[in-house]
Fold:
Amino acid sequence: MSLKLSGIAKAYGAHEAKVIALDRIDLAVEQGEFLCIWGASGSGKSTLLNILGLLDVADSGEYLLSGTDVAKLSERQRTKLRSEKIGFIFQGFNLIPVLSAVENVMFPLQVQGRSDKHARARALEFLDMVGLSAERDRRPDKMSGGQRQRVAIARALVTEPEMVLADEPTASLDSATSANILDLMRRLNRERKTTFIFSTHDSDLLSYASRNVSIRDGRIVDWQQHAPPQRAVVSTISALEPVA
Ligand code: ADP
Ligand code: MG
Structure:
């Protein structure tokens, strides 16, 4: 799934209380990229990902998703597109606390109207992929942060979306667990050619992406066109391979 944003703007509130969250964002992402959106707290990352994921709409500008102008879609078409083509991984995991790991992963398939039998089989396959087969019947509150995030990844991927959006997916995890989560996402990106877009405020995660853009006060700086604001960042994927 490719996307192209031109002049995307979004503000919250009105008059003196008005906050410009996104200020005329231009961004193009190709199918299969592993893009990092890096920025401080309050820079507009969540607002941008919510718009990319069709959870929110921009005030102005154009958003083409695989060539389709999303503003021209009906609410129903947007919902369908979101459910079939896009997976979300949220900062707070957003798992359903009363459901076990496998039930959480089954959920998006059930929303799509798949049978419980089909959903369970697929969910177990994806839990296995993230290394959590043994925890299938555990509830989120009985799991570690890293395990919860892996459940959230399995849930985001189980519908085999063309694009996965991850809003600060490692924000509440320690650095070793964060590295594992990023490695897992990167592997899935390579194997399945799924487009991944993740946001972070942590500069340690920049080395995982095939491309980094930074966001500051709702403005995007694309490092392909501008020098990175700090540290030397290598721009070829092969050079970014984390050392095993
Ligand atoms: P980030 O995810 O990078 O922390 P956000 O997209 O959440 O940034 O926020 C961007 C700006 O918009 C911030 O100044 C934030 O305070 C403001 N903002 C975000 N959501 C709302 C909201 N629902 N109402 C008012 N202001 C908001
Ligand atoms: Mg945020």
About this structure: The pocket of adenosine-5'-diphosphate (ligand 1) is lined by residues 12-13, 19, 21, 39, 41-47 (CB under 6 Å).
